[in-house]
């Protein structure tokens, strides 16, 4: 959808003449009324909050343009939004529009704002790192989005507002993911004179609060759902040479007692298919590319065998050193996801001498360094922050034995791929023959599989649980034909029916995330938002508010599409469909996790989404969902280059795309019988 269209919607809303039928009975009505009474910010609160924001951001970069700067009683149709929408309507425009926006808006908030003293209150810092931080250029040209009011890591400025659809001024700094409109990321390292170039931006001083240390919190988990046992019936294909047999139980993995205790405390009693196959493969020292449906336990599938190896190798306790040399590096595309992986690593390594550390953009660099120098065996990092830390010589790569790319297809695509290549060619990084490289995702487009060859030993194994790129069958998918001018009305109707069940609403642009979040708050639906233009503190606050149910609706861009494992997300609504089908699969995978059921409703606007009709029909039918006749009609009448409707296509590589390997392939119901399949690359063989 173009910028102009959105401007039009703001100016003349509710113009639709076509309101699609909504299947009310597919939704539980929930605690009607309650949800909306819980609406957060009274208008006076909001006003107060907005007053504060206006005070803090006047004269700063982008100040006053976001919806968050308005009192909620304001109408969005106001004319001054037009420039706002034109300027940057999607994530991919960031890099270009930042330049333009900067020169138009004039100036950004200076780094020496009131946040610095807040940060220094924390004390205990190494002055050298403070100095490092002082020269950090995380914002480059465009990094100024720092609130001037709150103390570092406090976050209280916005905590009081349930609706945090803040589009406050400025743009995010470097060293963090930028999701483009095609769902791709772009990233430039400050260390390499990336987009920040020579121009110095203000410091990032946010220090995330430490996670709770008590055992109950560390091992907190949600219950597996009614369909957990059905995982056993999913077909698994392993391709490549000499794959070790799958294990059926945790006991067979022969892990050490501490790990077994941790697994039990985490509530894991039974392996998921991806775990049954991946754990023995990793324990055997093999490289692996594993593809399994969303929410099926891929994180533990790589963490457990890596930890088992470390324990078996008699890893020594990591201690304070200026240069740390971790044995394992895990990278993931978003900050919230890498933090989640870190928490899993911390959980499974509980009671061992293995120390996991997490570093990610949007937080104070000095804080990342302080975490690292205290000892680091497993480093969980987003790519930008990782490269910065490496360039500062706080991390040496010589000891790396395990390199894990979670959401590997994203890590290798146009956005992060070049950085990943730099990582593996960094001085000291063991060659692929010397390290073990592991890649996990729910989607593995064919062209990405080809790129992966550069990272993996030629004899890597490929595990495909179910359909590569397929949606989780525990998610009931509904596609509604909704024109752009009817979407808001439809959204409100659905949310009112849902009641206070946790719902993620995906939109395609950051600006629209603000807009919709604020709109829903105005409709008295308690909502928060997460996207790349929000400060890290705000992002974490939003996620926290959503997780705990304070705000049962989270409006998000694709930054929240992958990996996030949030208990009780019962609904995903694609207010806008993403431009790529793999992103759709990841988004709807935020619900229906770990054997639980979930629902996904997507608004299909024939004007803008026709290119998705074919792949959508395929995803729906593969997941045994109803395919609306109208969608099939559009699919048949739409020619999509490169999409054949078969299992081949850019997204639907159904198995290992290596054409010429001589290995064997096994096609099994996970954990049960195993048979050798003669034709390892027969895409249709288990379709
Ligand atoms: N064997 C198991 N038994 C019980 N719960 C499990 C098991 N394995 C994983 N889980 C839980 O299932 C949930 C989903 O796991 P995880 O986040 O690793 O999924 P994923 O496959 O990585 O999903 P995504 O593709 O969305 O990243 C987590 O809460 C995790 O703790």
TrEMBL record:
Biased composition range(s): Basic and acidic residues: 123-135
Keywords from the UniProt entry: ATP-binding, Helicase, Hydrolase, Nucleotide-binding
Residue intervals of the Helicase C-terminal domain: 490-635
Parts of the chain that traverse the membrane: none
Segments forming domain DEAD-box RNA helicase Q: 248-276
Residue spans of biased composition, Polar residues class: 29-47, 666-678
Gene Ontology terms for molecular function: helicase activity
EC number: 3.6.4.13
InterPro entries: DEAD/DEAH_box_helicase_dom (IPR011545), Helicase_ATP-bd (IPR014001), Helicase_C-like (IPR001650), P-loop_NTPase (IPR027417), RNA-helicase_DEAD-box_CS (IPR000629), RNA_helicase_DEAD_Q_motif (IPR014014)
PROSITE patterns with a match to the protein in the record: DEAD_ATP_HELICASE (PS00039), HELICASE_ATP_BIND_1 (PS51192), HELICASE_CTER (PS51194), Q_MOTIF (PS51195)
Pfam families assigned: DEAD, Helicase_C
Helicase ATP-binding domain mapped to chain residues: 279-462
Region (Disordered): 1-204, 666-687
Motif Q motif, residue numbers: 248-276
Group of enzyme by EC: hydrolase
Family: Belongs to the DEAD box helicase family.
Protein name, entry field: RNA helicase
Lineage of the species this protein comes from: Eukaryota, Metazoa, Chordata, Craniata, Vertebrata
Gene symbol of the encoding locus: DDX4
